[in-house]
């Protein structure tokens, strides 16, 4: 099963949703000319379909292998990684001062989307490295940047994020790993970390572990956590005292080694403090925020791949007639197509807001864009990853009995996608972040005004007009739900928390419907102007209408469930849950 | 991870939804006294938790193994099957004339629910045998019944259903297997069948394959198909000319061998015609109708097992506090609990309708019950199996990162459950069956009147009163959607077909909400009368309210999507689906 990068679609979303044209006007991104953007998408698309995609099933069936501390990837992965490094793909969005190309994050996200569609398990190696680049870029000393950041940006070395411990999952404050100061200014790290993605492997020469640990006498909880650089190979070329103890046997992403890492078994694991003592959580949040957008984009990537796979099958498979001619299969394809396009637009808008926050010169504009990025991040992460699972499950359904047979590869998408709603903060945690931390910042008000503007711009009839009442109802419900949640946050944490998950879903659906409507309006203008590919542009309008009619009402209907409060959730005592 | 049969719940649903008391009054089921019913549930529950459940993970990790035509199950399966046979569990619902116990189908379904919760892959062996029992019971000659039916009922032999061929999946009429008459009255079968569940194994002495094939000069399509008994071991003790060519490597149910069967490679595969020539489809439908209810019950079983698993984890796992104390986890648990109870009630009502159709003496009553059974069958199959997948995915989410690790077993439920919306007619086919075949029969009218009756019986306040407006809205939407579909069936197949899948979902949700409300009313009456366990009965009321408030509105909201028509689904040409 091949993968084709959806370059027309990606370009259109970059232009009409992400405002790549405006981003290109910012001094920081002047070099990102339209021609260069296009060339990057095309070349990355070749790497994705030509090199990464052919390894996807092999990665699934063979998987990463652990042997006495070493982890081996299937044949072909190291070479594919070499091509990624040689193409300079890892440096795309990074700081030119340290060897990066300084391209917008949204463009890097579009490239990452392609690579992840092609091979999700493999792309995690790059994603974690990007997280390390961000954390070091924001918090490391100049010396550390010269030593480590440059090699991470070039891709010669890869990075990891070491947060979880056996007793501390979502509750980071409970972590126990320790760091003792050493006379030479370094630290000695001890502790065990679990679920470390690409914690050990054979595709690059060195691995830079970013490890959260506690200094002696550090305060308890999250206020006593510091961040350390812990390289696999030390600057003097010797092996550090750290070890991959085992890798997990997982439902999916088999080619992504999920490692249990042990630091300092022999009391000699050397680490270097990043930033101030006890300031590790802030650094980790820097890393996590972009990681959450990236994980959201994984939902887009898997949904796209599963959709392409199911579409190809539906054109070939005959049951009386080719199954793409059956209304019910058509409904599944339209659901996948429209939902994938909705979450792509959401992810790109989110990433573009990060670029604007970074690149705008006006302080107020920076703050507004940053607030939008912050507001959208839990929605992108939560809604897009949920849709990644639902759409890949729908793809299995299109395949029918063949979808349950592993050889077709349809089931792999479902298995791979299932991790994304869990890691980088479960979607339940995203929903709480949205309701408890993001809504009080108030950035939803101008966002909803933008949505209202798009609704006003829709004409009264035709396909575009058909979108109007559904989006209008959806926005009204979203506004009501938001006001209720903001109002009830003070007098009842459980009431807001109880509605958080359906609220995130409603937010994602309405925002997705809005961004499709925006694209439909833009498509309509281009059609009127005689620009672009009419078949593609007309499809944009039909797709937006389908989503408005079929999907948006499901979001609108969540107003009741969101605002019922938390009392009923706690009406049963624990014993009553069993029958 | 252990499984505990939910006997209090099962008994309550049998009494308040399935009308087991009324079924016990029918002459055919006189022996099914309340004490016996209770004893059967308790004893089957022991077999399920003590014998079947401990093999579930082993069955998943080791799986069925193929070697040169022979298929071996993991150690323990053959012994577990022996215990099943010795306990007489296979004969529970079968005709006493041929060694059965003549218990109601709904009771056999409750037992099957337990065994499937404990070990879905294994339970398929029993389920397929039940299908063969039904087909032979309805269509075989007396000699055939004595020879084969008795052994299938005792469980000494197992049965299979051979329908699918490589080129003929949902389109049964395209099958090509052939049957040539032989001088001795038997037939010589040739052909290849795929996806044959438990087509070869080592847990019983003989396997009776029921094979669909074409006689020479038979008409094309489904009208030229005949049904044959094709035993693995012939009556004279010799091996028949049939062979398991391979087994599939599947997403789940690894302990259920999915076989490619080859018949007559050496031109000497002996088969015996069942019923009339060219009447095979009718016999197959007999088998399939109950099989569809049974598959629907698999959704119940997996949802129950996944729920129990997630519940146990939520009470142990600490993230700041035990995760069952977090509102969002509580929401997931309530969603799983209420949905599982809703689909169980739907499945039991469906099975009870089969019993009433069989056991009532009045012709009109028989017809009414049969029509109800027919109407509900696609809803049970489609809605309950979709929920099986969604609830087991939710269980993975409760487990967080641990849910993605295969060792916890949470992922197995999701993998196992994913086949149920596909086999025995995909859920898309169920939706078309509901809309195109079942709605025109009109049985929905008295059913909806029953739902209206329950709504009227709900008081105006309290937890029961809170249910009322939601169920009322849901029923109104269901009525509207039904009238629209029935009205649009004539003038536009695509319009009805386009709305079929969301319609089935709405039907399932409203029917589920109704049956939970019915139980809540019954619970309220028992509480008032001082009967039963108050904790259990109060939980019933809370659970019904949760489902009404949180889930039913999602069904109501589908009225729009159902009635938008098929035009938009075909607005894109095929090339426009790709971007």
Automatic annotation (TrEMBL), chains A, B:
What UniProt keywords are attached to this protein's entry?
A: FAD, Flavoprotein, Oxidoreductase
Using the record's annotation, list all stretches that form the Acetyl-CoA dehydrogenase-like C-terminal domain.
447-573
Q: What is the lineage of its organism?
A: Bacteria, Pseudomonadati, Pseudomonadota, Alphaproteobacteria, Sphingomonadales
Q: What class of enzyme is it?
A: oxidoreductase
Q: Which InterPro entries match?
A: Acyl-CoA_dh-like_C_dom (IPR025878), Acyl-CoA_Oxase/DH_mid-dom (IPR006091), Acyl-CoA_Oxase/DH_mid-dom_sf (IPR046373), AcylCo_DH-like_C (IPR036250), AcylCo_DH/oxidase_C (IPR009075), AcylCoA_DH/ox_N (IPR013786), AcylCoA_DH/ox_N_sf (IPR037069), AcylCoA_DH/oxidase_NM_dom_sf (IPR009100)
Q: Which domain of life is it from?
A: Bacteria
Write down the required cofactor(s): FAD
* Any Pfam family hit: Acyl-CoA_dh_M
Q: Which GO terms describe its molecular function?
A: oxidoreductase activity
Ranges for domain Acyl-CoA dehydrogenase/oxidase N-terminal:
78-156
Q: What is this protein called?
A: Acyl-CoA dehydrogenase
Which EC numbers characterise this protein's activity in its record?
Answer: 1.3.8.-
Instruction: Describe the location of the Acyl-CoA oxidase/dehydrogenase middle domain by residue ranges.
Output: 161-263
Concerning its family, UniProt says: Belongs to the acyl-CoA dehydrogenase family.
Query: Cross-referenced Gene3D superfamilies, in alphabetical order?
Result: Acyl-CoA dehydrogenase/oxidase, N-terminal domain, Butyryl-CoA Dehydrogenase, subunit A, domain 2, Butyryl-CoA Dehydrogenase, subunit A, domain 3
